[in-house]
């Protein structure tokens, strides 16, 4: 490829003015025509590999006592847009807490372009996201345009595109996933017993170890934030009952005696194992120790009246009507 013509002058005449051109060292990628001084490239250059070449050329006359002079040649390789923008990852993964305020920074996309000048000026955009995120086209900073609720949506995935300013422009794409980390923002919800006013009959003949009632709750969070622990916090003064901390099953610890007959109000605490803050719910479990239910409206009346007793105080056993 033709680059330029090197030319020198000589004020002598004849052979004393005949000029021969010669390349100095460090010019292995170039050819110089000895007679015409035409400088050509002997290979294809890659600016990303080497941008400048510096070498010397010598002009020598054909005099019997040859005279010569030297000049420095600098060849600068101009850029071509032959590199597409490169993302540092094919798939960017970011982790954010739910309940993060809108417009918080959730991640930064990094992209490089090996070219120079405008050929390396890259702008970023989001391809397919329903305006849940805002991407700064220059800095690559991704901000949320929504407040995250992991219980509604636990991850978001979309594609981003990088386009350089070359003509024609080069572009590339990458995937982005925003993972929403759970925060313990849901207390346990009691499924069973269905209400705080229902009761279960515990016959005097019930066998110790048998399940007399069940407590079951769910928690909308995940992991430890949804792991539940059941405990009886009051109403079990004689330790007649025991609750399984994991299943919530309430079993009879010992055979009830006549002294145990009547209504027992167990206050059960259901707490999650959330960190740093655990959330909890209280539920009332009424157990009526007697041979038969007898008059159930009487028991419901008792249950209503227990509401006047604070939950941290054991209610007095009420004798069934004779
Ligand atoms: Ca280039
Ligand atoms: Ca480029
Ligand atoms: Ca929870
Ligand atoms: Ca949550």
Automatic annotation (TrEMBL):
Cellular compartments per GO CC: plasma membrane
Membrane topology of this protein: Single-pass type I membrane protein
Name of the protein: Protocadherin 9
Keywords, comma-separated and alphabetical: Calcium, Cell adhesion, Cell membrane, Glycoprotein, Membrane, Metal-binding, Repeat, Signal, Transmembrane, Transmembrane helix
Localization, UniProt: Cell membrane
GO molecular function, a single term: calcium ion binding
Superkingdom to which the source organism belongs: Eukaryota
GO BP terms: anatomical structure morphogenesis; homophilic cell adhesion via plasma membrane adhesion molecules
PROSITE patterns: CADHERIN_1, CADHERIN_2
Major localisation: membrane
Protein species of origin: Sinocyclocheilus anshuiensis
Cadherin domain sequence ranges: 3-87, 88-190, 202-299
InterPro entries: Cadherin-like_dom, Cadherin-like_sf, Cadherin_CS, Protocadherin/Cadherin-CA
């Amino acid at each position: 490829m033709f680059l330029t013509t090197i030319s020198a002058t000589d004020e002598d005449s004849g052979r004393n003015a005949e000029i021969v051109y010669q390349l100095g060292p460090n010019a292995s990628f170039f050819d110089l025509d000895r007679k015409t001084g035409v400088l050509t490239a002997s290979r294809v250059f890659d600016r990303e590999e080497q941008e400048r070449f510096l070498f010397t050329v010598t002009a020598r006359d054909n005099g019997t006592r040859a005279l010569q002079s030297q000049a420095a040649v600098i060849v600068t390789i101009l850029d071509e847009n032959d590199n597409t923008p490169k993302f540092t990852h094919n798939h960017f993964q970011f982790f954010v807490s739910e309940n993060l305020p809108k417009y918080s920074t959730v991640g930064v996309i990094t992209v490089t372009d090996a070219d120079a000048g405008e050929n390396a000026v890259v702008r970023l955009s989001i391809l397919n996201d329903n305006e849940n995120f805002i991407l700064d086209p220059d800095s690559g900073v991704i901000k949320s345009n929504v407040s995250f609720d992991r219980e509604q949506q636990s991850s978001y995935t979309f594609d981003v595109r990088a386009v350089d300013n070359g003509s024609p422009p080069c572009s590339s794409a990458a995937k982005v996933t925003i993972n929403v980390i759970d925060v313990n923002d849901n207390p346990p919800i009691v499924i069973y017993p269905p209400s705080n006013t229902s009761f279960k009959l515990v016959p005097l003949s019930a066998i110790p170890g048998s399940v007399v009632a069940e407590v079951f709750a769910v928690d909308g969070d995940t992991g430890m934030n949804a792991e539940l622990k059941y405990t009886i916090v009051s109403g079990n003064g004689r330790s007649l009952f025991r609750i399984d901390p994991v299943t919530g099953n309430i079993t009879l610890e010992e055979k009830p005696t006549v002294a145990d007959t009547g209504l027992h109000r167990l206050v059960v605490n259901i707490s999650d194992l959330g960190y740093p803050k655990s959330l909890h719910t209280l539920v009332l479990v009424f157990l009526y120790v007697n041979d038969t239910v007898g008059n159930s409206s009487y028991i419901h009346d008792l249950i209503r009246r227990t509401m006047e007793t604070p939950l941290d105080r054991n209610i007095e056993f009420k004798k069934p009507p004779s």
